[in-house]
Amino acid sequence: MKQLEKKVAIVTGGASGIGKEVAILYAAEGAKVVIADIDESGAQKVISIIEKSAGEAIFVKCDSSKPEDNELLVKKTVEKFGALHIACNNAGIAGPLAPVGDYPIDGWNKVISINLSGVFYAMHYQIPAMIKSGGGVIVNMTSILGQVGFRNASAYVAAKHGVVGLTKNAALEYSHQNIRINSVGPAFIKTPMIKDIDESLLVPLHPIGRLGKPEEVAELVLFLSSEKSSFITGGYFSIDGGYLAQ
């Protein structure tokens, strides 16, 4: 039996990168998948991949920074598939690079609204639906920068630290209602988010000697979304090629 048979899952930011691979793997393991993103074209390509393998997926346009979009996402998910059991809150942006004293205010607000507030909005609407479905699992995508600093990326670092704390708090609040909530912290992964950065500058930051692959992150997300991790909640799990061990 597939690990996510008869489950319904939401993946935010599912049109590319890590979210794309999570959506594909969820579907391969039997879940009905709702891909939430602002990129409809990218999402439809992911749906085509899923359907070619006899999986089932739909697209719902969602700006993670808007509470009403998150509310509508959950509503459409339940209307289509009758329940919500799993969510991977993955949508995020990198934002500007500048020291705190020079960091653009609009850039700060945008990063916080998507990377932190967006996760709060997502869980705010996902959790009641999961309770009605008899329980569920949430995996929030944070980063190695949810544990350490990184010069000139104050908004991203602050948001990802915030997601780690938010995850812990929500896990404490809803464990007794059969909802497990964890966070995953990737290092630099080969995705469109880092396409404009010279890879030769990033590889040496990882003791393992290479960048991570989105498929590798998806495997960790799948484990945390399945019954194989049934005694795990409130945790932060790095997947970083040794970055944080330094």
Defining traits:
alpha/beta, 7 helices, seven-stranded parallel β-sheet, single chain, Rossmann fold, 246 residues, 43% helix
Structure explained in plain terms:
A seven-stranded parallel beta sheet has the order 3-2-1-4-5-6-7, with helices on both faces. It has seven helices and seven strands, in the order βαβαβαβαβαβααβ. It has 246 residues and is an alpha/beta fold. It has a single domain, classed as Rossmann fold (3-Layer(aba) Sandwich), CATH 3.40.50. Helix 2 (40-52) links the parallel strand 2 (32-37) and strand 3 (56-61). It has helices spanning 17-28, 40-52, 67-81, 105-132, 154-174, 199-202, 214-225; strands spanning 8-12, 32-37, 56-61, 86-89, 136-141, 179-186, 236-239. Helix 3 packs parallel to helix 4 (105-132) and helix 4 (105-132) runs parallel beside helix 5. The radius of gyration is 17 Å and the shape is globular.
Q: Briefly, what is this?
A:
With about 250 residues, this protein is an alpha/beta fold. Helices cover about 45% and strands about 15% of the residues. The longest helix is centred in the middle third of the chain and has 28 residues, at about 105-130.
Sequence-ordered SSE layout with sheet pairings:
Blueprint: E1 8-12, H1 17-28, E2 32-37, H2 40-52, E3 56-61, H3 67-81, E4 86-89, H4 105-132, E5 136-141, H5 154-174, E6 179-186, H6 199-202, H7 214-225, E7 236-239
Parallel strand pairs: 1-2, 1-4, 2-3, 4-5, 5-6, 6-7
Helix pairs in contact: 1-2, 1-7, 3-4, 4-5
CATH class: Alpha Beta
How many alpha or pi helices?
Answer: 7
List the helices and strands in order: EHEHEHEHEHEHHE
CATH H level, superfamily name: NAD(P)-binding Rossmann-like Domain
Number of strands: 7
